[in-house]
Design brief:
The chain is α+β, with helices and mostly antiparallel strands and about 220 residues long. Helix content is about 25%, strand content about 30%. It starts with 8 loop residues before the first helix and ends with a strand.
C-alpha cells in the first residue's frame, strides 16, 4: 500500500489565499522548499530516479515530485519513509533549513568608513555590510561626494556594480559612455571597465553602491 502525504491543518487553511502567497522570495526559504531540495540532493547522490525512490518510500512518483519541488507539506511518517529509503538520518532533511542565516544591521551614520583603492579627497565610502563565508562577495556602500572631491573614472575591479543616486546630480562614466544621473536614477554595470563620477553637477552627492564579485576574483 502506498502512503500519501498528509497536509497539516495550516496548509488546508492557507489554500485558496492566492498564488502570491505560494511563490516569491519568502518561499525560497520555506521549510517545504528546503526539505525538497535536501530530498532531491540525497536522491541524486545515490543515483536514484524519482520512480525508484518513490517505490522504495511507498509514495507515488507525482507526490515525490511535489515534495522535491516544495509544493506540498509532508507528514512526519512520509519524511521518515523518505529518510529510510535515502539511508540518511531523519534530521538530515532539516539541516539546511536550520543553518544560520546571517544578517547585518547598521544604524544611520554608523557604517564603517573605509578608503577604497583609488579613492580621492572628498570621497567618503561608508560600508553598510559584508557577506561572510559565501562564495559571492557583496559589499554595499553609502558614497558621499563633496565640493572637495577630486573625480576621475579611475575605478576598475572584477565583478558587477550597481549604483543608485539618492541626492545631487552627476555625470557618471562607464568605459566610453557618460551617463547623466539625477536622484532616483540607477546604473548596473560590469565593473571591470574603468568607471566613476566624472562631472559633479549638483552637490552634495549621495549614492548607494553595491559591488558583487566572486571570492575567487578578489
Amino acid at each position: 500500500m502506498r502512503r500519501t502525504a498528509e497536509a497539516p491543518a495550516e496548509q488546508v487553511a492557507a489554500e485558496g489565499q492566492g498564488e502570491a502567497h505560494a511563490v516569491g522570495g519568502a518561499r525560497e526559504n520555506s521549510l517545504e522548499v528546503s526539505i525538497g531540495r535536501a530530498v532531491r540532493q540525497f536522491r541524486l547522490d545515490l543515483g536514484k530516479t524519482v520512480a525508484e525512490l518513490a517505490r522504495e518510500a511507498e509514495l507515488s512518483a507525482g507526490m515525490l515530485s511535489k515534495i522535491e519541488n516544495g509544493a506540498t507539506s509532508s507528514s512526519l511518517s512520509t519524511l521518515r519513509a523518505l529518510s529510510t529509503a535515502l539511508n540518511v538520518p531523519f534530521t538530515a532533511l532539516f539541516r539546511k533549513f536550520e543553518e544560520q542565516r546571517d544578517a547585518s544591521f547598521v544604524k544611520a551614520g554608523e557604517g564603517l568608513n573605509i578608503e577604497r583603492r583609488g579613492t580621492r579627497a572628498g570621497h567618503q565610502y561608508e560600508l553598510l555590510g559584508h557577506s561572510v563565508g559565501k562564495s559571492l562577495s557583496v559589499e554595499p556602500y553609502l558614497v558621499t561626494l563633496t565640493d572637495e572631491s577630486d573625480v576621475f573614472p579611475i575605478f576598475q575591479h572584477a565583478g558587477l556594480e550597481f549604483i543608485y543616486l539618492l541626492e545631487g546630480e552627476m555625470d557618471y562614466r562607464h568605459g566610453s559612455k557618460l551617463y547623466p544621473m539625477k536622484p532616483g536614477d540607477s546604473l548596473f554595470f560590469d565593473s571591470d571597465a574603468p568607471h566613476g563620477p566624472e562631472h559633479l553637477v549638483k552637490l552634495p552627492i549621495r549614492m548607494l553602491s553595491v559591488i558583487c564579485a566572486s571570492r575567487e576574483t578578489e
